[in-house]
Automatic annotation (TrEMBL):
Residues 15-100 form the TfoX N-terminal domain. The lineage of its organism: Bacteria, Bacillati, Actinomycetota, Actinomycetes, Micrococcales. This is TfoX/Sxy family protein. InterPro entries: TfoX_N. SUPFAM superfamilies: YgaC/TfoX-N like.
């Protein structure tokens, strides 16, 4: 499964100039890491997943749900469908949430 290159470019643009950011192809998507910790990843069809504090009860809704890989729910990750990041404002909020949490983790 290939990742959505348009979404990856939008994320890349938002992270331009952010210190410690790198990219890595993982899990069939393109992950954006902050100091070696995954923050957000572009998936297919405009969907993405982002890192969050697993102890925090983030709201899920129409466009955000727990991230599932195979039959396993990924603790600390949420999936956002394309409609949930259709605007630059929505995408910016999601990317910032992932980056903020990744920055709380020790560098790798």
């Amino acid at each position: 499964m290939a990742y959505d290159e348009g979404l990856a470019e939008r994320i890349r643009h938002l992270l331009d100039g952010e210190p410690g950011v790198s990219e890595k192809k993982m899990f069939g998507g393109l992950s954006f890491l902050v100091d070696g910790n995954m923050a957000v990843a572009a998936g297919n069809d405009g969907a993405l997943m982002f890192r969050r504090d697993p102890a925090r009860a983030d709201p899920v809704g129409e466009h955000i749900r727990p991230q599932v890989m195979g039959e396993r729910v990924m603790s600390g990750w949420l999936h956002v469908d394309a409609e949930g990041v259709a605007t630059e404002e929505a995408l910016r909020e999601i990317v910032q949430r992932g980056v903020r949490y990744a920055r709380t983790l020790p560098p790798k």
